[in-house]
Amino acid sequence: MDRGASPIFVAVMVIFEEDDHAAATQQAIDDSEARRIHRPEFKFSKCSADVRDLFFEAVRNCHFKVRAIVVRKEVIYSPRLKADKNRFYEYFVKSMMNYDAGILQNAKVIIDGSGDREFRQTLNSALRRRLGSGAIKDLRFKRSHRDPLLQLADMCAGAIARSYRPDRPRYDRWRKMLAPRINDVWDFR
Predict the structure, then answer these.
(1) What pLDDT does 138 receive?
(2) Sign of CA dihedral 8, 187, 175, 58
(3) CA 80/CA 4 separation, integer angstroms
(4) Domain ranges of the chain
(5) How far apart are CA 174 and CA 159, in angstroms?
(6) Which residues pair with 10 in a beta bridge?
(7) 3-state per-residue secondary structure call for 155-172
(8) Digit-coded pLDDT (tens) for 116-125
(9) Chain segment 140-165, per-residue pLDDT in tens
(10) Of the candidates 19, 29, 1, which has an alpha carbon nearest to the alpha carbon of residue 155?
(11) Which pLDDT score, from 0 to 100, does residue 2 have?
């Protein structure tokens, strides 16, 4: 909600049905032309258009699904969510995971580890409570700079968020490249 912040918030789940699909996708990212010219970490907002093209081309045939929640910040009326970015993030991540169409069953979940320890513990507890038993087998927080699959999630979130900004150049280009992998995009209202 801060000044200068994007008017759109997007949270994504990148879903792999098999561990070997995740490993193959990580390898595709590591071996990509995008990796050769861009180091150390893929972040949509920090990559050039050419790197984005190469990145999405590299993962085009990989086996994963993307589910996302898109929030136009202007529709948020809750003073609590407006005032506390941790609560905002927690609320929408919980919502996305709660309405998962049954995908989360005995899942290994990895979340970008930004935020302080207290926030990570609160989010971990809230997710486990909210989702009930059987949904999450293992939940971990990792730093994205060391994990290409978290970087994939950032790139997917960026591509989807950009598609809501027709005032920006190439606003839907990367979402179109990602389209075969998109399982659901929920526009929060």
Answers:
(1) 86
(2) positive
(3) 20
(4) 8-100+143-188
(5) 5
(6) 70
(7) HHHHHHHHCCCCCCCCCC
(8) 788 888 888 8
(9) 889 898 899 999 999 999 999 999 99
(10) 29
(11) 56
